[in-house]
Design goal:
Length: 212
C-alpha cells in the first residue's frame, strides 16, 4: 500500500500508558481492581470522562460525577480530581525517533482526547506535550479544544480533511481498541499499541520505512 499519512494518538502511544499508575493508585487506596478503567469504559460516550474531555463540564462537576459513577459501578467512590494526575506518562524515545523518520516521508497527525487546559491535573497530564515532539505533527486535534472526542468518527474525518488525504492511505495508532474501530471502518490501517517495539515493527511493515 502507498501510505500518505501516519496518525498517532498521544497518551499511551507516544508516552507510556497511565494504566500502571491507575493500578498502583487502586492498590494503595484499597479500591477494587480496575475500578478506574471500568468507570471510564462504562457508558464511554456520555460518562463524566467523556464530558470532561469535550470540555462540557468543569473540574468540580467531573470530580463529583466520576465519584458517583464509580460508586454505582463498583461500590467505591473514587475522586475524579485525584485520578487526573495519574494521566502523566513518560515519552517513549523510540517512538519519537520513529515519528521523526516518518515525517521525512509522510504527512503526520495527532488525535488526542485530552483535558481542558485549566483543569487541575491537566498540567501534569499535558506536560508530555513537549513542544519539540508536537512540532513533528503536521496537524494536531485536541478533544477539549473542539468539543469532540474519539471514538466519534467525525474526529478522524477532520484529520484526514486537514491533511488532505484519503483514509485508505493512512495508518492510525492508538492504545485503545474502541478508538481504533472507527478508524478501521473508515478504511485506515490500524495498529494497537502494546509496546514501543511492537508498534514500531508494525509501522515498519505498514509503511515500508526503516524506523529505528
Amino acid at each position: 500500500m502507498m501510505v500518505e499519512a501516519v496518525i498517532f494518538d498521544f497518551g499511551g502511544v507516544m508516552t507510556t500508558s497511565p494504566f500502571e499508575a491507575f493500578a498502583r493508585f487502586e492498590q494503595e487506596r484499597g479500591y477494587p481492581v480496575d475500578i478506574i478503567r471500568n468507570t471510564n469504559a462504562a457508558n464511554h460516550l456520555e460518562n463524566a470522562w467523556a464530558k470532561f474531555e469535550r470540555a462540557e463540564i468543569d473540574l468540580d462537576t467531573f470530580d463529583r460525577l466520576f465519584a458517583e459513577e464509580s460508586l454505582a459501578l463498583a461500590g467505591a467512590a473514587v475522586s475524579g480530581r485525584e485520578v487526573l494526575p495519574l494521566l502523566a506518562g513518560d515519552l517513549r524515545p523510540d517512538l519519537v525517533e520513529a515519528l521523526r523518520r516518518i515525517k521525512s516521508e509522510c504527512k503526520t497527525g495527532c488525535i488526542t482526547n485530552n483535558l481542558p487546559a485549566n483543569a487541575i491535573g491537566s498540567q501534569g497530564g499535558r506536560s508530555f506535550y513537549v513542544a519539540e515532539v508536537m512540532a513533528l505533527f503536521d496537524h494536531v486535534i485536541e478533544s477539549a479544544k473542539i468539543g469532540l472526542r474519539k471514538p466519534d468518527p467525525r474526529i478522524y474525518r477532520m484529520m484526514t480533511d486537514a491533511l488532505g488525504v484519503s483514509p485508505a492511505d493512512c495508518v492510525y495508532l492508538d492504545d485503545l481498541g474502541v478508538n481504533l474501530k472507527p478508524a478501521r471502518e473508515l478504511g485506515m490501517t490500524t495498529i494497537k499499541v502494546v509496546s514501543a517495539s511492537q508498534a514500531i515493527a508494525e509501522l515498519e511493515a505498514a509503511t515500508g520505512l526503516t524506523l529505528r
